[in-house]
Write a structure and sequence with these properties.
Blueprint lengths: L6 H21 L16 H15 L4 E5 H5 L6 H5 L5 E6 L2 E7 L8 E4 L2 E2 L20 E7 L14 E6 L9 E11 L4 E14 L8 E20 L4 E2 L5 E28 L2 E29 L5 E29 L2 E27 L3 E7 L5 E3 L10 E30 L2 E26 L17 E4 L9 E3 L1 H9 L9 H6 L2 E18 L2 E22 L2 E25 L2 E12 L3 H4 L3 E4 L2 E4 L7 E13 L5 E12 L2 E5 L11 E7 L2 E14 L10 E20 L4 E7 L7 E10 L3 E10 L2 E4 L10 E3 L2 E11 L4 E8 L6 E5 L5 E6 L3 E10 L1
Parallel strand pairs: 4-7, 23-26, 27-31
Antiparallel strand pairs: 1-6, 2-3, 4-5, 6-7, 8-9, 8-43, 9-10, 10-12, 10-42, 11-12, 12-13, 13-14, 14-15, 14-16, 15-18, 16-17, 18-19, 19-22, 20-21, 22-23, 23-24, 24-25, 25-28, 26-27, 28-29, 29-32, 30-31, 32-33, 33-34, 33-35, 35-36, 36-39, 37-38, 38-41, 39-40, 40-43, 41-42
């Protein structure tokens, strides 16, 4: 475990590392001046690192970058997996694939994603976070994570903004095209999956101009068939007398994921002072999932190895889900002497469509199973008789059928005006502008519950699992037994009048419409004073919010309509000092604001006697004052060492809570909702290093090494009503999703023909979800994870390259535990994936 160092130790370590790096650079014959680096050709891994570092070096913000050829060097299926290689970045995975991005320990919903400068809305109903697995990495020219925002940027991220830039014809000289075919094999599913992708760009002459019009297009398609095996307790432990388990569930997922993406981009530069562009991007993510599960519930909570009576269920969930993202951005820039006018209009739409599907088909055991128990508290497995695996011992209890559609649109217009001027011989620029954003999110859920089949005239024999079984399910964690046929379930309920089974309460309480209108303006000034560069400014954001939905109070429906508006003034100050030719110091003070998630703001509620569950549309937005200080040193090609300290003072962070026993909920036994905390603090140290050892003799001159790590700590206070003491109590916690240590290590080698890379990504354990205010033992934590990947590229000819990639070589599982790492909440295995590809490139 990492032990917290004092600030003095951190600073000492930082400058010691820089001193060693500077010494190693002086030993290098490859040391180059700042301007000279633009004219030296580098290829492969070194090329990608070099391009990224140039952008990072010249940025006015603290920024981490990876370029398209860098993405191509890594075995990454999507944007989330590509960006995890950057300092301070970790990802949340779904079924073993990277999905949501966390920046400097802050959860994905506290960061924002932009494509070509315009905000991307979330396709999921409850979230703001964008699931970046919908974006194939082939459609991306560069990825950057901006960690300190200047006043001309949207202020809607606490950790950072992930900016995705798609391909432009002006990224290459003349005609460029590339195409890749690939096949991957998943060890657990024993399935082979195809993938094809390609991109093309060229410049043309319009009017009197020469090569002033560019067109770029990219396409990508892949289909991946895989599976995972899971066992979970969902925290159903009784810790009052040792560790005793109430219930657990075994799950087998069979999944097919299909990604289709495309982009068509235009650039026009009629003269040296004018540029226009149109960026379009479309991505479609189709996920088909079949989940068979078995559930065991003990009559009394049991310790490991104890035997007793248990009830059993077998379940099926089968659904198809399609997420789409569309993004269209039109903009341009015009220089008029000392003035520069720029503007942009953007339209983005995200959607998630889940057509009618089996949300749950449940078969209950016809009787209890005696002498049942479990073994292994980390991966519980049943101790049970042979009758548990006989389909004749289970009968259909109910079928839940659902359909859901979510749409989220973002429309915005931005206008900026800048003027260069001189202050006593120092170059300066004043810049001001505004932005109008209109966001609209809808969720529509319809639910049906089919039950009481015996009252409909079905015999016990007709409802027996044996009539719906599809044979024995393979399960790597032990014996599983019969699976359930989705088509047989659909045939059964297809003959019934579904209007008789409509669940109006579930359907209406989850429907909502939300509107979020933001009007923003800013002014900022940049001045260069000798070796200093200063940026000071102020941003204003005014927000109008409305949420419409339906509540259910003891069976009676009530319309809910909440309207609010709030305003934020957000000052910022950035400074950069050129300490030496290749060394610079950065400092920043910024202020940002993030709105709560749509699930937290949901206007719907369900009140049933003394039990309530509801969202909170009156939640305050999260506000953060951010302080950053760091130093960067650049060492020739692909070489850098850097260290950054960061501190965030966060107000109004949101947490889940039980309000029963307090205020208007004084007479309730449960009242689950969301509340604002007073304050939270996050601080840490971010270190990064990369270098190509090209001054060493062959073959060592092909070695490339990279490493980065982030150490962070957080503290937040939450409060809630404690039924045992009858008082409101406070509790200190870590921020959810915040890992104290995140790191990457890369070792590569390349020459003109061969390029190989071994990379590892580490993320320490973190708090996933709070339990009761006075129930720390049931808090959910995600265990530490280390993913090891390997990639190799070999050039058969100048334009033709063969590749081999291996992901998750160590078969790293996903493990969530309750309070202590000995006690399962969820355990899931995915297996490694191997792929072989062929790429043809011309430029």
């Amino acid at each position: 475990m990492y032990k917290c160092r004092s600030r003095a130790q951190w600073v000492g370590f930082t400058f010691s590392a820089l001193a060693l790096a500077i010494a190693s650079e002086r030993l290098s014959a490859a040391e180059t001046a700042i301007g000279a680096t633009e004219h030296v050709e580098v290829v492969g891994q070194a090329a990608s690192l070099d391009k990224a570092l140039k952008q990072q070096r010249n940025s006015d913000s603290i920024e981490s970058v990876v370029h398209a050829d860098g993405v191509a060097q890594l075995p990454d299926a999507n944007v989330a997996e590509a960006v995890q290689r950057l300092p301070g970045i970790s990802i949340e995975r779904d079924q073993g694939e990277g999905r949501f991005v966390s920046v400097r320990g802050l959860g994905p919903d506290l960061n924002s994603v932009t494509i070509n400068g315009t905000l991307v809305p979330s396709p999921e109903s409850a979230r703001r976070a964008v699931a970046l697995d919908v974006l194939p990495s082939e459609l991306v020219q560069s990825l950057s994570v901006i960690k300190t925002l200047t006043p001309d940027m949207d202020a809607n991220s606490l950790g950072g903004t992930v900016d995705v830039q798609s391909l432009s014809a002006f990224d290459h000289e003349g005609l460029f095209y590339t195409g890749t075919t690939q096949a991957s094999y998943n060890d657990k599913s024993a399935q082979t999956s195809p993938k094809v992708s390609g991109a093309i760009s060229d410049r043309f002459s319009l009017g009197d101009g020469i090569n002033n019009f560019g067109v770029a297009a990219a396409l990508s398609w892949n289909k991946r068939d895989f599976r995972s095996d899971n066992v979970e307790t969902a925290g159903d432990w009784d810790f009052t007398q040792g560790a005793r388990l109430n219930s657990f569930e075994q799950r087998v997922y069979d999944i097919s994921r299909e990604r289709t993406g495309g982009g068509l981009n235009f650039d026009y530069k009629p003269d040296d002072d004018t540029s226009l562009y149109l960026r379009t991007l479309y991505s479609r993510f189709k996920d088909s999932e079949t989940r068979n599960s078995t559930a065991l519930e003990f009559a009394d909570a049991q310790a490991e190895g104890e035997l007793g009576d248990a009830k059993a269920k077998r379940k099926l969930k089968q659904r198809e889900e399609t997420q789409e993202i569309q993004s269209y951005v039109f903009g341009g820039e015009r220089s008029m002497g000392l003035w520069t006018l720029s503007g942009q209009a953007g339209y983005s739409k995200s959607s998630e469509d889940s057509p009618g599907h089996i949300a749950g088909a449940t078969f209950k055991g016809n009787s209890s199973f005696a002498d049942s128990g479990f073994y292994d508290t980390e991966k519980p497995r049943p101790i049970i008789g042979a009758g548990f695996y006989d389909p004749n011992n289970f009968s259909l209890d109910k079928v839940d059928w659902e359909e859901q559609t979510t749409k989220d649109t973002e429309k915005n217009i931005r206008l900026d005006l800048a003027r260069d001027y001189d202050v006593q011989g120092y170059a300066s620029q004043v810049k001001f502008g505004g932005k109008v954003s209109r966001r609209h999110k809808d969720n529509d859920l319809n639910a049906w519950v089919y039950e009481d089949f015996s009252d409909l005239g079905y015999s016990d024999n007709q409802l027996n699992l044996n009539q719906f079984s599809k044979g024995t399910v393979h399960y790597s964690l032990g014996q599983f037994g019969p699976g359930i046929s989705g088509s047989a379930i659909k045939d059964l309920i297809g003959g019934l009048n579904r209007d008789d089974f409509y669940d109006e309460q579930e359907s209406r309480a989850n429907d909502f419409t939300m509107r979020e209108d933001i009007n923003a303006g800013y002014v900022m000034n940049t001045v260069d004073v000798d070796d200093w560069r200063f940026i000071a400014g102020l941003r204003y954001e005014g927000t109008e919010f409305e949420a419409k939905g339906t509540g259910v109070r003891n069976g009676v429906f009530e319309d809910e309509d909440t309207k609010r508006d709030y305003h934020h003034w957000l000052p910022g100050l950035h400074a950069r000092y050129q300490l030496a030719k290749n060394t610079q110091v950065r400092a920043a003070w910024t202020n940002t604001v993030v709105r709560p998630t749509f699930g937290q703001l949901a206007p719907g509620f369900v009140i049933d006697d003394d039990v309530a569950e509801f969202g909170n549309p009156n939640l305050k937005p999260l506000e953060s004052s951010n302080f950053d200080l760091g130093i960067e040193h650049f060492m020739g090609h692909a070489g850098t060492v850097s260290a950054f300290l960061f501190y965030k003072d966060i107000k109004n962070f949101v947490y889940n809570t039980d309000l029963a026993g307090s205020g208007e909920w004084a007479d309730f036994t449960e009242a689950h909702s969301y509340a604002n905390g007073d304050s939270a603090k996050l601080y840490g140290l971010e270190l990064a290093y990369s270098q190509k050892f090209d001054w060493l003799p062959a073959p060592w001159n092909g070695v490339i090494m990279g490493a980065n790590t982030t150490f962070s700590r957080s503290k937040a206070s939450v409060e809630g009503f404690d039924a045992a003491s009858g008082t409101t109590i406070k509790r200190d916690i870590d921020l959810p999703s915040q890992s104290k240590t995140v790191g990457n290590l890369m070792l590569g080698w390349e020459d003109d023909k061969l390029s190989v890379r071994l990379s590892a990504n580490y993320k320490s354990a973190y708090l996933y979800e709070l339990a009761g205010i006075n129930d720390k033992a049931h808090d959910s934590h995600v265990d530490a994870q280390t993913f090891v990947d390997f990639s190799a590229r070999y050039s058969l000819t100048k334009d033709l390259q063969i590749s081999f990639d291996a992901q998750n070589l160590t078969d790293q599982p996903y493990f969530v535990y309750s309070g202590n790492s000995r006690y399962n909440n969820q355990y899931e295995e995915y297996g490694p994936t191997y792929s072989v590809g062929l790429t043809f490139t011309h430029f």
